[in-house]
Amino acid sequence: MTAPDSTSLNPLAHPGLDRAADERLVPDLLETARTDAESRALVVAGDSAPLAAPDALLWLAPSDVPGGAEWAFLGRDDNGTALLAAVFTSQDEELFVAPAGWAGLRTMGAVLSARDAGAFVEALSLGRWLIDAPFCPACGTPTVLGDAGWSRRCPNCGRQHFPRTDPAVIVAITSADDPDLLLLGSNALWGADRFSCFAGFVEAGESLEAAVRREVAEESGVEVATVIYRGSQAWPYPRSLMVGFLAESLDDTAARADGEEIAAIRWFTRDEIGRALAGDGDVVLPGQASIAHRLIADWHAERA
Question: What do you get for the CA distance between the two ends of the chain, in Å?
Fold first, then answer.
């Protein structure tokens, strides 16, 4: 099976905007864009951004952004306007009053336009690196920003550093015996009524397919046969690339929670999943901005 087409992508998987990566090497690009009255900046504080409406981000002129931000060039919109990120650490109080308040990516990702969703996930992913990694990891010297916010250079040892992305797999498990059953797990840190797909980081020297089989076996006791790629999305909590798969169990009776990370597992019928997706029943599924939601919803829709 091939990857889903662009019409079925998760809300945070769309390109969103032209990143114009070739422009990052232009001298003084960021400074020039910040002084251009036509440029627009997305403010991110912690993991929240201001809203112009319940389904739209608020973009400011750079001159209207409060002082103290870390800046980066996000790209350009369809009209060629420069789009910037102005990033702040988490704030106890809102930086300024926004027309529709402030909200996080988890809450807003599914209702924003492709441009706004793409810009939000880009700004949050890049912004966390800008805030959290100001020092050279090799020698501890404060670094100097370059490439319009996309790199750091150490003036002491000369090393160049870039934003880090950690690949992780996330898997929905289908039954070997019944096409209308889906296995989900409840993390030990969640409420007992919340269930989702199985997920984990890819280890050093490990392929995505191997990570799927290892994580599923560790968390659920299930060995899987067929592993089918279903799409990916950035997930900046803190800096993941979630790669989604559908996998088929070899032996449904082997399913058991690991008792550490996963507190409970359960085979759900298609009808139970349908009710949970509709907000009925006693089971809470992942939010619509997540690839976990898309994996579950797509499985349900195949025979709904």
Answer: 20
136-155 pLDDT per residue, tens? 999 999 999 999 999 999 99
Classify residue 125 as exposed, middle or buried by CB count within 10 Å of its CB (0-12, 13-18, 19+).
Answer: buried
Q: Residue 86's closest CA among 34, 51, 132, 136?
A: 34
DSSP state string for 34-86? HT-TT-EEEEEETTEEEEEETTEE--B-GGGSPSS-EEEEEEE-TT--EEEEE
Residue 57 predicted with pLDDT over 70:
yes
Q: How many helices (H) and strands (E) does the chain have?
A: 6, 15
Question: What does DSSP say about strands 181-187 and 166-174: parallel, antiparallel, or unpaired?
Answer: antiparallel
Helix%, strand%, coil% for the chain, nearest 5: 25, 30, 40
pTM equals 0.90
- pLDDT tens for 1-56 read 344 443 456 888 888 899 999 999 999 999 999 999 999 999 999 999 999 999 99
Q: Which domains does the chain have, with CATH numbers?
A: 6-132 (no CATH), 166-302 (3.90.79.10)
In the block, tokens 């070899």 appear at 250
DSSP-assigned letter for residue 142:
B
Determine the Cα–Cα distance for residues 193 and 191; give it in Å rounded to an integer: 5
Q: Is 53 in contact with 171 (CB distance < 8 Å)?
A: no
